[in-house]
Amino acid sequence: MTSRRMRVPTRSLIAAVLVALAGGAAWLVRSKRPQPPEPAAAPPRIGYSRNGAAPTPLAGAGAENGR
Q1: Phi, psi of 26, deg, nearest 5
Q2: Confidence at 16, pLDDT banded by 50, 70, 90
Q3: Cα separations in angstroms, 27 against 8, 13, 19, 52
Q4: What was the pLDDT predicted at 25?
Q5: What DSSP string runs through 3-51?
Q6: CB neighbours of 49 closer than 8 A, spacing ≥ 6?
Q7: How confident is the model at residue 21 (pLDDT cuts 50, 70, 90)?
Q8: Alpha-carbon dihedral angle through residues 9, 14, 18, 21, given to the nearest 10 degrees
Q9: What whole-number distance in Å separates Cα of residue 47 and Cα of residue 42?
Q10: pTM score > 0.90 for this model?
Q11: What is the pLDDT confidence band of residue 20, given thresholds at 50, 70 and 90?
């Protein structure tokens, strides 16, 4: 048996390299994960205070509508 060298056309080889590069670039873009957002500030506590002071009412909260 004679070993015969496979001859790949140059255009096919260039096309295969371009497809591989595009796939690698797409994989890199997809693998980069976005940074998580900064944690939010703690919300104000609702309820009784620890020092016994009454909470300050919000403007308009509990006000009569006059209906």
Answers
A1: -65, -40
A2: very high
A3: 27, 21, 12, 59
A4: 93
A5: -------HHHHHHHHHHHHHHHHHHHHHHPPPPPPPPPPPPPP-S--SS
A6: 55
A7: very high
A8: 100
A9: 15
A10: no
A11: very high
Residue with tokens 């670039």: 25
Once rounded to an integer, what is the mean pLDDT over residues 21-42? 87
Per-residue pLDDT, 46? 75
What is the torsion angle, in degrees rounded to the nearest 10, for the CA atoms of residue 7, residue 12, residue 18 and residue 19? -110
Residue 12 structure tokens: 């096919």
Identity (one letter) of the amino acid at 65? N
CB-based contact 35:41 (threshold 8 Å): no
Tokens representing 64 are 């009569």
**Burial degree of 30 (CB within 10 A; 0-12, 13-18, 19+):** exposed
